[in-house]
Amino acid sequence: MTEQTPAPVSPDATVSPAPPVSHAPTAGSAVPVSGPLTVREISAEEAVETLLEVGGSFLQTPAWGRAKAGWRRTHLGWFDASGRRVGAGLVLSRTIPRLSRSYAYLPEGPGLPWDVVATDPAPWLDPLVAWARANKAFALRLGYPVVSRIWDREPVKKQVVDNGLLSFTSLPAAVDNPAARSLEAWLDRNDWLPLGADGVAVGQPRLLCVVDLRGRTDAELLKGMNQQWRRNVKKAEKAGVQVRTVGPEGLDTFHALYVESAQRDHFLPRPKSYFDVMARSFASEGDGDDRAVSARFYEAHVDGDVLASALMIRFGRTFSYLYGGSTERNRDARASNALQWRAMRDAAAAGCEAYDFRGFNTSLGATSPLTGLLLFKLGAGADVVEMVGERELVISRFWHFAFARAMATRIAINKRRKAARATPDAADI
């Protein structure tokens, strides 16, 4: 998520309903559960089936597990007393070398009926902790996919332009979820420690930009964009920009544009091999464009000259924009706007409820090039959605301390190898 686009101007005042996030609690998703819950390993196919049923994140799929080299993956299922599977999650584990102790991580997961979980977390989380202890995990890290607050885009844009990137968090939110406050209080009482804070980028993003697609026509989605965005969509049409989708064969073109964007905006790009593994992991999930899990490169071109490319992932009811890049050639064609507009319409046509622009790096100042990227997303009609986010439970302080020291040493070594001008990529996807 690294493409720099000029900040939109002359916004139209529009307020959308609270955007959905497929792995967030939704009204009416309560699942009657009988008796105590248990957690045990399940197959990858069973995991996908359950995640689609309860609304889980693509970060909990087998494809994501295959994409994370160096991590052991385990699929877990939650079962009630009747033996019915009522939840699923992907545990990524990293083991201390030559020891059996491991660090366990569930990014944006697991897939559970979170509106039920938030009211009484212990019956759902205690079996997971017991499983982690039995498997010699010294720490358990979990991304809680519960919506905390939502801000409408217009006040956010004004506040960011006038007062800096994070100043909008002091504004009253359009949505403030009491279930999130209850869950956070329980987590605090039970020693689940928050990771990161405002101004620090840690793990998966806590602040997301999401466009609500529910029940909206193409005309309504276009109207939800600001004036500059609509103008740029028209410019792209007049310039003859066409958008196509390709599979893993689009990697080389994508990465070249992504690296060009990195050089232009002064961030450290990820290697091509990272995206190669990711694209192929999701491409192998099934056959055909109608499957529930898929990854595609979108390419915006004029007469075959690709000006912008982006990696998109669709899982269940959510369509996610992960990374993008563009060239300085023919900037007036507004290829990036055309690309996102095509992807948004594809998502709506596929029955998705949310177009997820993913997050933004909250450690950046208001003058950072990536602030323009945030405004680009808001101009497209996205609202800012804050999740409860990542928490960590330390099971063994000794092994956790040893692991933290080893990781700190590794990070310090890697930093010395990086170019002095480079900064980390905006998202820890």
From TrEMBL:
Q: Which GO terms describe its molecular function?
A: aminoacyltransferase activity
Q: Which UniProt keywords apply?
A: Acyltransferase, Cell shape, Cell wall biogenesis/degradation, Peptidoglycan synthesis, Transferase
Q: Does the keyword Acetylation apply?
A: no
Q: Which residues form a coiled coil?
A: none
Domain (BioF2-like acetyltransferase): give its ranges: 227-357
Pfam families (alphabetical): Acetyltransf_6
One record GO biological process: cell wall organization
Family according to the record: Belongs to the FemABX family.
Query: What is the name listed in the Swiss-Prot or TrEMBL entry for this protein?
Result: Peptidoglycan bridge formation protein FemAB
Question: Native species of this protein?
Answer: Terrabacter aerolatus
